[in-house]
Protein backbone atom coordinates (compact mmCIF):
# COMPACT_ATOMS: atom_id res chain seq x y z
CA UNK A 1 0.00 0.00 0.00
CA UNK A 2 2.87 2.39 0.66
CA UNK A 3 3.81 2.24 -3.02
CA UNK A 4 0.46 3.85 -3.90
CA UNK A 5 2.06 7.25 -3.33
CA UNK A 6 3.10 6.89 -6.97
CA UNK A 7 -0.49 7.82 -7.82
CA UNK A 8 -0.25 11.24 -6.14
CA UNK A 9 1.29 13.06 -9.16
CA UNK A 10 -1.57 11.68 -11.25
CA UNK A 11 -4.14 13.18 -8.90
CA UNK A 12 -2.31 16.52 -8.89
CA UNK A 13 -1.93 16.56 -12.70
CA UNK A 14 -5.65 15.82 -13.11
CA UNK A 15 -6.61 18.59 -10.69
CA UNK A 16 -4.40 21.23 -12.34
CA UNK A 17 -5.43 20.20 -15.86
CA UNK A 18 -9.13 20.38 -14.99
CA UNK A 19 -9.08 23.54 -12.89
CA UNK A 20 -6.38 25.58 -14.64
CA UNK A 21 -5.15 24.26 -17.99
CA UNK A 22 -3.71 21.19 -19.65
CA UNK A 23 -0.65 23.18 -20.71
CA UNK A 24 0.09 24.25 -17.15
CA UNK A 25 -0.34 20.68 -15.92
CA UNK A 26 2.10 19.42 -18.55
CA UNK A 27 4.82 22.01 -18.00
CA UNK A 28 4.60 22.57 -14.24
CA UNK A 29 3.33 19.17 -13.00
CA UNK A 30 4.24 16.46 -15.49
CA UNK A 31 7.75 17.72 -16.39
CA UNK A 32 8.80 18.17 -12.70
CA UNK A 33 7.38 14.73 -11.90
CA UNK A 34 9.37 13.22 -14.76
CA UNK A 35 12.65 14.90 -13.86
CA UNK A 36 12.48 14.92 -10.05
CA UNK A 37 10.99 11.54 -9.13
CA UNK A 38 12.54 8.13 -9.95
CA UNK A 39 11.02 5.98 -12.67
CA UNK A 40 12.15 2.74 -11.04
CA UNK A 41 9.64 2.96 -8.18
CA UNK A 42 6.18 1.67 -9.05
CA UNK A 43 2.77 1.31 -7.44
CA UNK A 44 2.24 -2.45 -7.30
CA UNK A 45 -1.40 -2.78 -8.36
CA UNK A 46 -2.96 -6.27 -8.50
CA UNK A 47 -4.45 -7.06 -11.90
CA UNK A 48 -3.22 -3.82 -13.49
CA UNK A 49 0.06 -2.41 -14.86
CA UNK A 50 2.29 -0.95 -12.16
CA UNK A 51 2.71 2.80 -12.85
CA UNK A 52 5.65 4.95 -11.84
CA UNK A 53 5.21 8.53 -10.62
CA UNK A 54 5.41 10.06 -14.09
CA UNK A 55 3.28 7.34 -15.69
CA UNK A 56 0.41 8.02 -13.29
CA UNK A 57 0.71 11.73 -14.18
CA UNK A 58 0.81 10.82 -17.86
CA UNK A 59 -2.41 8.80 -17.70
CA UNK A 60 -4.28 11.48 -15.76
CA UNK A 61 -3.11 14.26 -18.03
CA UNK A 62 -3.97 12.31 -21.17
CA UNK A 63 -7.49 11.68 -19.87
CA UNK A 64 -8.12 15.42 -19.44
CA UNK A 65 -6.33 16.16 -22.73
CA UNK A 66 -8.77 13.89 -24.61
CA UNK A 67 -11.82 15.15 -22.68
CA UNK A 68 -10.94 18.72 -23.69
CA UNK A 69 -10.76 17.81 -27.36
CA UNK A 70 -6.99 17.23 -27.72
CA UNK A 71 -6.04 20.94 -27.82
CA UNK A 72 -3.18 21.73 -30.17
CA UNK A 73 -2.96 18.27 -31.69
CA UNK A 74 -2.64 17.80 -35.43
CA UNK A 75 -1.74 14.55 -37.17
CA UNK A 76 1.66 14.23 -38.87
CA UNK A 77 3.85 11.53 -40.42
CA UNK A 78 6.01 11.47 -37.31
CA UNK A 79 2.99 10.17 -35.39
CA UNK A 80 3.09 7.03 -37.52
CA UNK A 81 6.82 6.53 -36.96
CA UNK A 82 6.57 6.93 -33.18
CA UNK A 83 3.38 4.85 -33.07
CA UNK A 84 4.90 2.02 -35.12
CA UNK A 85 8.03 2.11 -32.95
CA UNK A 86 5.98 1.79 -29.74
CA UNK A 87 3.88 -0.95 -31.33
CA UNK A 88 6.90 -2.93 -32.59
CA UNK A 89 8.52 -2.88 -29.14
CA UNK A 90 5.27 -3.94 -27.47
CA UNK A 91 4.43 -6.60 -30.07
CA UNK A 92 7.91 -8.12 -29.94
CA UNK A 93 7.59 -8.51 -26.18
CA UNK A 94 4.12 -10.00 -26.55
CA UNK A 95 5.49 -12.58 -29.00
CA UNK A 96 8.37 -13.42 -26.69
CA UNK A 97 6.60 -13.44 -23.33
CA UNK A 98 2.83 -13.35 -23.71
CA UNK A 99 0.54 -10.61 -22.45
CA UNK A 100 0.89 -11.25 -18.71
CA UNK A 101 4.64 -10.64 -18.74
CA UNK A 102 4.55 -7.99 -21.48
CA UNK A 103 1.87 -5.71 -20.02
CA UNK A 104 4.24 -3.44 -18.09
CA UNK A 105 6.42 -2.85 -21.15
CA UNK A 106 3.32 -2.17 -23.25
CA UNK A 107 2.15 0.25 -20.57
CA UNK A 108 5.57 1.95 -20.62
CA UNK A 109 5.45 2.40 -24.40
CA UNK A 110 2.00 3.94 -24.12
CA UNK A 111 2.51 6.21 -21.09
CA UNK A 112 6.23 7.02 -21.39
CA UNK A 113 6.59 7.20 -25.17
CA UNK A 114 3.30 7.90 -26.96
CA UNK A 115 1.55 10.13 -24.42
CA UNK A 116 4.58 12.39 -23.72
CA UNK A 117 5.25 12.66 -27.46
CA UNK A 118 1.65 13.76 -28.04
CA UNK A 119 1.77 16.21 -25.11
CA UNK A 120 4.96 17.81 -26.43
CA UNK A 121 3.75 18.23 -30.01
CA UNK A 122 0.34 19.53 -28.91
CA UNK A 123 0.98 21.72 -25.87
CA UNK A 124 4.28 23.55 -26.43
CA UNK A 125 4.55 25.12 -29.90
CA UNK A 126 0.80 25.48 -30.60
CA UNK A 127 0.49 27.56 -27.41
CA UNK A 128 3.81 29.36 -27.83
CA UNK A 129 5.23 27.85 -24.62
CA UNK A 130 8.71 26.85 -25.75
CA UNK A 131 10.35 29.14 -23.18
CA UNK A 132 8.15 27.85 -20.36
CA UNK A 133 8.93 24.25 -21.25
CA UNK A 134 12.67 24.81 -21.41
CA UNK A 135 12.65 26.80 -18.16
CA UNK A 136 10.76 24.02 -16.38
CA UNK A 137 13.42 21.52 -17.49
CA UNK A 138 16.29 23.81 -16.44
CA UNK A 139 14.81 24.62 -13.02
CA UNK A 140 14.23 20.94 -12.27
CA UNK A 141 17.74 19.91 -13.34
CA UNK A 142 19.27 22.75 -11.34
CA UNK A 143 17.64 21.27 -8.24
CA UNK A 144 18.91 17.80 -9.19
CA UNK A 145 22.43 19.22 -9.51
CA UNK A 146 22.36 20.57 -5.95
CA UNK A 147 21.54 17.10 -4.63
CA UNK A 148 24.09 15.57 -7.02
CA UNK A 149 26.82 17.46 -5.19
CA UNK A 150 25.82 15.68 -1.98
CA UNK A 151 25.94 12.35 -3.81
CA UNK A 152 29.37 13.17 -5.29
CA UNK A 153 30.75 13.84 -1.84
CA UNK A 154 29.16 11.10 0.25
CA UNK A 155 28.17 8.43 -2.28
CA UNK A 156 24.65 8.56 -0.86
CA UNK A 157 21.63 8.79 -3.17
CA UNK A 158 18.95 10.80 -1.40
CA UNK A 159 16.13 9.60 -3.66
CA UNK A 160 16.86 5.96 -2.94
CA UNK A 161 17.35 6.61 0.77
CA UNK A 162 14.13 8.51 1.44
CA UNK A 163 11.71 7.37 -1.28
CA UNK A 164 12.90 3.77 -1.13
CA UNK A 165 11.16 3.25 2.22
CA UNK A 166 7.82 3.53 0.41
CA UNK A 167 8.82 0.91 -2.18
CA UNK A 168 10.30 -2.07 -0.31
CA UNK A 169 12.29 -4.40 -2.53
CA UNK A 170 12.30 -1.97 -5.50
CA UNK A 171 15.23 -0.13 -7.09
CA UNK A 172 17.85 -2.26 -5.35
CA UNK A 173 19.74 -3.00 -8.57
CA UNK A 174 20.95 0.58 -8.94
CA UNK A 175 24.33 1.00 -7.27
CA UNK A 176 26.71 3.95 -6.95
CA UNK A 177 29.88 3.82 -9.05
CA UNK A 178 33.04 5.87 -8.52
CA UNK A 179 35.55 7.70 -10.71
CA UNK A 180 38.42 10.06 -9.84
CA UNK A 181 37.78 9.35 -6.16
CA UNK A 182 34.22 10.73 -6.35
CA UNK A 183 30.83 9.07 -6.47
CA UNK A 184 29.22 9.43 -9.88
CA UNK A 185 25.89 11.15 -9.32
CA UNK A 186 22.84 9.29 -10.61
CA UNK A 187 20.16 11.62 -9.25
CA UNK A 188 16.61 10.24 -9.59
CA UNK A 189 17.49 8.43 -12.83
CA UNK A 190 19.03 5.20 -11.56
CA UNK A 191 22.44 5.46 -13.22
CA UNK A 192 25.01 8.20 -13.64
CA UNK A 193 25.08 7.76 -17.42
CA UNK A 194 21.33 8.32 -17.67
CA UNK A 195 21.76 11.39 -15.49
CA UNK A 196 24.51 12.54 -17.86
CA UNK A 197 22.29 12.23 -20.95
CA UNK A 198 19.43 14.15 -19.31
CA UNK A 199 21.77 16.87 -18.03
CA UNK A 200 23.23 17.22 -21.54
CA UNK A 201 19.73 17.84 -22.92
CA UNK A 202 19.15 20.42 -20.19
CA UNK A 203 22.44 22.14 -21.01
CA UNK A 204 21.52 22.58 -24.66
CA UNK A 205 18.08 23.95 -23.74
CA UNK A 206 19.60 26.32 -21.19
CA UNK A 207 22.18 27.66 -23.64
CA UNK A 208 19.37 28.31 -26.10
CA UNK A 209 17.41 30.15 -23.38
CA UNK A 210 20.46 32.20 -22.48
CA UNK A 211 21.25 33.13 -26.08
CA UNK A 212 17.58 33.97 -26.69
CA UNK A 213 17.63 36.31 -23.66
CA UNK A 214 14.61 34.46 -22.31
CA UNK A 215 15.61 34.86 -18.65
CA UNK A 216 14.91 38.27 -17.09
CA UNK A 217 17.83 40.46 -16.10
CA UNK A 218 16.80 40.20 -12.46
CA UNK A 219 14.84 37.54 -10.56
CA UNK A 220 13.25 38.06 -7.17
CA UNK A 221 14.91 35.11 -5.45
CA UNK A 222 18.28 35.53 -7.15
CA UNK A 223 19.11 39.12 -6.25
CA UNK A 224 22.28 37.85 -4.52
CA UNK A 225 23.73 37.05 -7.96
CA UNK A 226 24.55 40.74 -8.33
CA UNK A 227 27.37 40.33 -5.79
CA UNK A 228 29.01 37.83 -8.14
CA UNK A 229 28.26 39.92 -11.26
CA UNK A 230 26.12 37.11 -12.66
CA UNK A 231 22.85 37.29 -14.55
CA UNK A 232 20.20 34.59 -14.07
CA UNK A 233 20.91 33.17 -17.52
CA UNK A 234 24.61 32.78 -16.72
CA UNK A 235 23.80 31.31 -13.31
CA UNK A 236 21.56 28.57 -14.72
CA UNK A 237 24.13 27.74 -17.37
CA UNK A 238 26.71 27.16 -14.63
CA UNK A 239 24.21 25.05 -12.68
CA UNK A 240 23.41 22.74 -15.58
CA UNK A 241 27.05 22.55 -16.64
CA UNK A 242 27.82 21.51 -13.07
CA UNK A 243 25.12 18.87 -13.39
CA UNK A 244 26.81 17.48 -16.50
CA UNK A 245 30.16 17.34 -14.70
CA UNK A 246 28.67 15.73 -11.58
CA UNK A 247 27.83 12.54 -13.48
CA UNK A 248 31.49 11.96 -14.46
CA UNK A 249 30.36 10.37 -17.72
CA UNK A 250 33.02 10.70 -20.39
CA UNK A 251 30.79 9.32 -23.16
CA UNK A 252 28.14 11.96 -22.49
CA UNK A 253 30.79 14.69 -22.31
CA UNK A 254 32.15 13.63 -25.70
CA UNK A 255 28.64 13.48 -27.18
CA UNK A 256 27.90 17.00 -25.94
CA UNK A 257 31.15 18.38 -27.34
CA UNK A 258 30.59 16.85 -30.77
CA UNK A 259 26.95 17.98 -30.87
CA UNK A 260 28.06 21.54 -30.12
CA UNK A 261 29.37 21.65 -33.69
CA UNK A 262 25.80 21.97 -34.95
CA UNK A 263 25.10 24.82 -32.55
CA UNK A 264 28.18 26.65 -33.84
CA UNK A 265 26.52 26.70 -37.28
CA UNK A 266 23.39 28.26 -35.80
CA UNK A 267 25.37 30.97 -34.00
CA UNK A 268 27.41 31.93 -37.04
CA UNK A 269 26.49 34.78 -39.37
CA UNK A 270 28.31 32.94 -42.16
CA UNK A 271 26.49 29.64 -42.10
CA UNK A 272 27.97 28.21 -45.28
CA UNK A 273 31.47 28.89 -44.00
CA UNK A 274 30.52 27.42 -40.60
CA UNK A 275 29.15 24.26 -42.21
CA UNK A 276 32.32 23.94 -44.27
CA UNK A 277 34.46 24.35 -41.17
CA UNK A 278 32.46 21.81 -39.14
CA UNK A 279 32.53 19.24 -41.96
CA UNK A 280 36.27 19.81 -42.44
CA UNK A 281 36.89 19.21 -38.74
CA UNK A 282 34.82 16.03 -38.87
CA UNK A 283 36.67 14.72 -41.92
CA UNK A 284 40.23 15.76 -41.19
CA UNK A 285 40.20 15.47 -37.40
CA UNK A 286 37.16 13.41 -36.43
CA UNK A 287 37.75 10.58 -38.90
CA UNK A 288 41.40 9.98 -37.90
CA UNK A 289 40.36 10.12 -34.25
CA UNK A 290 37.64 7.55 -34.91
CA UNK A 291 40.10 5.23 -36.63
CA UNK A 292 42.55 5.71 -33.78
CA UNK A 293 39.81 4.89 -31.26
CA UNK A 294 38.84 1.71 -33.13
CA UNK A 295 42.47 0.65 -33.11
CA UNK A 296 42.67 1.53 -29.41
CA UNK A 297 39.50 -0.44 -28.59
CA UNK A 298 40.17 -3.49 -30.75
CA UNK A 299 43.18 -4.76 -28.78
CA UNK A 300 40.95 -6.91 -26.57
CA UNK A 301 40.38 -6.66 -22.84
CA UNK A 302 43.26 -9.00 -22.06
CA UNK A 303 45.72 -6.66 -23.76
CA UNK A 304 44.29 -3.42 -22.33
CA UNK A 305 46.85 -1.23 -20.59
CA UNK A 306 44.44 0.55 -18.22
CA UNK A 307 40.81 0.70 -17.13
CA UNK A 308 39.84 3.17 -19.86
CA UNK A 309 41.17 0.94 -22.63
CA UNK A 310 39.52 -2.09 -21.03
CA UNK A 311 36.15 -0.32 -21.03
CA UNK A 312 36.58 0.66 -24.69
CA UNK A 313 37.62 -2.89 -25.58
CA UNK A 314 34.58 -4.29 -23.77
CA UNK A 315 32.19 -2.16 -25.83
CA UNK A 316 34.01 -3.07 -29.04
CA UNK A 317 33.86 -6.80 -28.30
CA UNK A 318 30.23 -6.47 -27.20
CA UNK A 319 29.06 -5.65 -30.72
CA UNK A 320 31.12 -8.37 -32.42
CA UNK A 321 29.98 -11.04 -29.94
CA UNK A 322 26.26 -10.26 -29.99
CA UNK A 323 25.58 -9.53 -33.66
CA UNK A 324 25.17 -13.23 -34.46
CA UNK A 325 22.90 -13.69 -31.45
CA UNK A 326 20.70 -10.78 -32.57
CA UNK A 327 20.50 -12.04 -36.16
CA UNK A 328 19.02 -15.36 -34.97
CA UNK A 329 15.75 -13.50 -34.28
CA UNK A 330 16.12 -10.76 -36.81
CA UNK A 331 12.67 -9.21 -37.06
CA UNK A 332 11.16 -9.21 -33.57
CA UNK A 333 14.09 -9.97 -31.30
CA UNK A 334 14.36 -12.17 -28.23
CA UNK A 335 12.17 -10.13 -25.91
CA UNK A 336 13.19 -7.85 -23.07
CA UNK A 337 16.44 -9.18 -21.59
CA UNK A 338 15.70 -12.75 -22.76
CA UNK A 339 18.53 -13.19 -25.25
CA UNK A 340 21.12 -15.89 -24.48
CA UNK A 341 23.95 -14.26 -22.55
CA UNK A 342 27.48 -14.53 -23.93
CA UNK A 343 29.83 -15.36 -21.03
CA UNK A 344 31.83 -12.35 -19.90
CA UNK A 345 29.35 -9.76 -21.20
CA UNK A 346 26.94 -9.04 -18.38
CA UNK A 347 25.62 -5.66 -19.58
CA UNK A 348 24.79 -4.31 -23.05
CA UNK A 349 26.29 -0.81 -23.02
CA UNK A 350 24.91 0.15 -26.42
CA UNK A 351 21.24 1.05 -26.86
CA UNK A 352 21.18 0.28 -30.58
CA UNK A 353 22.53 -3.22 -29.99
CA UNK A 354 20.18 -3.66 -27.01
CA UNK A 355 17.16 -2.66 -29.12
CA UNK A 356 18.26 -5.08 -31.85
CA UNK A 357 18.57 -7.92 -29.32
CA UNK A 358 15.36 -7.16 -27.42
CA UNK A 359 12.99 -6.10 -30.19
CA UNK A 360 14.57 -6.83 -33.57
CA UNK A 361 15.60 -4.92 -36.62
CA UNK A 362 12.18 -3.29 -37.23
CA UNK A 363 12.24 -1.40 -33.91
CA UNK A 364 15.91 -0.52 -34.42
CA UNK A 365 15.36 0.94 -37.89
CA UNK A 366 12.34 2.95 -36.75
CA UNK A 367 14.35 4.41 -33.87
CA UNK A 368 17.20 5.37 -36.22
CA UNK A 369 14.80 6.94 -38.72
CA UNK A 370 13.18 9.01 -35.95
CA UNK A 371 16.50 10.10 -34.46
CA UNK A 372 18.55 10.82 -37.59
CA UNK A 373 15.60 11.90 -39.73
CA UNK A 374 14.52 14.54 -37.23
CA UNK A 375 18.09 15.79 -36.88
CA UNK A 376 18.48 16.24 -40.65
CA UNK A 377 15.08 17.92 -41.00
CA UNK A 378 15.93 20.40 -38.27
CA UNK A 379 19.28 21.28 -39.83
CA UNK A 380 17.68 21.81 -43.24
CA UNK A 381 14.96 23.94 -41.65
CA UNK A 382 17.49 26.00 -39.72
CA UNK A 383 19.64 26.58 -42.79
CA UNK A 384 16.61 27.74 -44.77
CA UNK A 385 15.56 30.39 -42.24
CA UNK A 386 16.97 33.93 -41.95
CA UNK A 387 19.83 34.44 -39.51
CA UNK A 388 18.34 34.99 -36.08
CA UNK A 389 19.04 37.70 -33.58
CA UNK A 390 20.15 37.32 -30.85
CA UNK A 391 22.64 34.84 -32.26
CA UNK A 392 21.96 31.29 -31.15
CA UNK A 393 18.24 31.89 -30.66
CA UNK A 394 17.32 29.52 -33.49
CA UNK A 395 15.66 26.53 -31.85
CA UNK A 396 16.31 24.33 -34.90
CA UNK A 397 20.06 24.02 -34.35
CA UNK A 398 19.74 23.43 -30.61
CA UNK A 399 17.19 20.65 -31.11
CA UNK A 400 19.24 19.01 -33.87
CA UNK A 401 22.29 19.10 -31.57
CA UNK A 402 20.24 17.25 -28.93
CA UNK A 403 19.46 14.49 -31.43
CA UNK A 404 23.13 14.17 -32.38
CA UNK A 405 24.06 14.06 -28.71
CA UNK A 406 21.54 11.28 -28.13
CA UNK A 407 22.84 9.34 -31.14
CA UNK A 408 26.41 9.37 -29.83
CA UNK A 409 25.59 8.99 -26.12
CA UNK A 410 23.27 5.99 -26.37
CA UNK A 411 25.92 4.09 -28.28
CA UNK A 412 27.55 3.76 -24.84
CA UNK A 413 24.49 3.37 -22.57
CA UNK A 414 20.91 2.13 -22.72
CA UNK A 415 18.28 4.81 -23.36
CA UNK A 416 15.84 3.93 -20.60
CA UNK A 417 13.60 5.36 -17.89
CA UNK A 418 13.38 9.18 -18.01
CA UNK A 419 16.07 9.50 -20.69
CA UNK A 420 13.80 7.60 -23.10
CA UNK A 421 10.72 9.65 -22.23
CA UNK A 422 12.64 12.93 -22.55
CA UNK A 423 13.85 11.83 -25.98
CA UNK A 424 10.31 11.40 -27.26
CA UNK A 425 9.27 14.71 -25.71
CA UNK A 426 12.03 16.35 -27.78
CA UNK A 427 10.74 14.45 -30.83
CA UNK A 428 7.23 15.82 -30.24
CA UNK A 429 8.49 19.37 -29.72
CA UNK A 430 10.61 19.15 -32.88
CA UNK A 431 7.73 17.83 -34.98
CA UNK A 432 5.45 20.70 -33.92
CA UNK A 433 8.27 23.23 -34.33
CA UNK A 434 8.94 22.14 -37.91
CA UNK A 435 5.24 22.33 -38.72
CA UNK A 436 4.26 25.52 -36.92
CA UNK A 437 7.22 27.79 -36.30
CA UNK A 438 6.55 31.26 -37.68
CA UNK A 439 9.11 32.96 -35.45
CA UNK A 440 12.59 31.94 -34.44
CA UNK A 441 14.67 34.52 -32.68
CA UNK A 442 13.89 38.22 -32.60
CA UNK A 443 14.69 38.92 -36.28
CA UNK A 444 14.43 42.60 -35.47
CA UNK A 445 10.70 42.57 -34.89
CA UNK A 446 10.44 41.65 -31.26
CA UNK A 447 8.46 38.52 -32.17
CA UNK A 448 10.27 36.41 -29.63
CA UNK A 449 8.59 38.18 -26.74
CA UNK A 450 5.07 38.30 -28.16
CA UNK A 451 2.83 35.31 -27.64
CA UNK A 452 -0.36 34.99 -29.67
CA UNK A 453 -3.67 35.44 -27.90
CA UNK A 454 -5.10 31.90 -27.65
CA UNK A 455 -8.53 32.95 -26.38
CA UNK A 456 -11.44 31.68 -28.42
CA UNK A 457 -13.06 35.12 -28.60
CA UNK A 458 -11.12 38.34 -28.97
CA UNK A 459 -12.60 41.78 -28.39
CA UNK A 460 -11.10 45.20 -28.82
CA UNK A 461 -11.81 48.02 -26.44
CA UNK A 462 -12.63 51.30 -28.22
CA UNK A 463 -12.74 54.63 -26.42
UniProtKB/TrEMBL annotation:
Please tell me where this protein is predominantly located.
membrane
On whether Hydrolase is a keyword of this UniProt record, the answer is no
Membrane topology type:
Multi-pass membrane protein
Question: Which segments cross the bilayer?
Answer: 235-265, 272-297, 361-380, 392-416
Q: Name one Pfam family in it.
A: Wzy_C
Q: Which terms are listed as keywords in the entry? A: Ligase, Membrane, Transmembrane, Transmembrane helix
Which parts of the sequence belong to the O-antigen ligase-related domain? 236-368
Question: InterPro entries from the xrefs?
Answer: O-antigen_ligase-rel_domated
Q: Which GO terms fall under molecular function for this chain's record?
A: ligase activity
The listed locations are: Membrane
- A single GO CC term, please? membrane
User: Per its record, how is this protein called by name?
Assistant: O-antigen ligase domain-containing protein
What species does this protein belong to?
Methylovulum psychrotolerans
Amino acid sequence: MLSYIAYLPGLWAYYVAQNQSVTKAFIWVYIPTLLLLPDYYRAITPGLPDPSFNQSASVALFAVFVMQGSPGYKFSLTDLLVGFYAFSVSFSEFLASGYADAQNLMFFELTSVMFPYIFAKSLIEPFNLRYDFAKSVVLCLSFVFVLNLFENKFGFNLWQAYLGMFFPGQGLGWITTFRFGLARAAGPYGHCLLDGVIMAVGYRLQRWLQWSEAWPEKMKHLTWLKAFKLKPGQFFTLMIFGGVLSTLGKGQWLAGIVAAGIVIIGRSKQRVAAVTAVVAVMVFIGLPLLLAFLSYASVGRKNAKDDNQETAAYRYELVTEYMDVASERLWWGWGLMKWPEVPGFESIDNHFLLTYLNHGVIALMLLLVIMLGMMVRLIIHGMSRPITEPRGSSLAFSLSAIFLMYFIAVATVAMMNQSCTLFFIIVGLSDAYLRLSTWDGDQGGGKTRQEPDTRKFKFRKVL
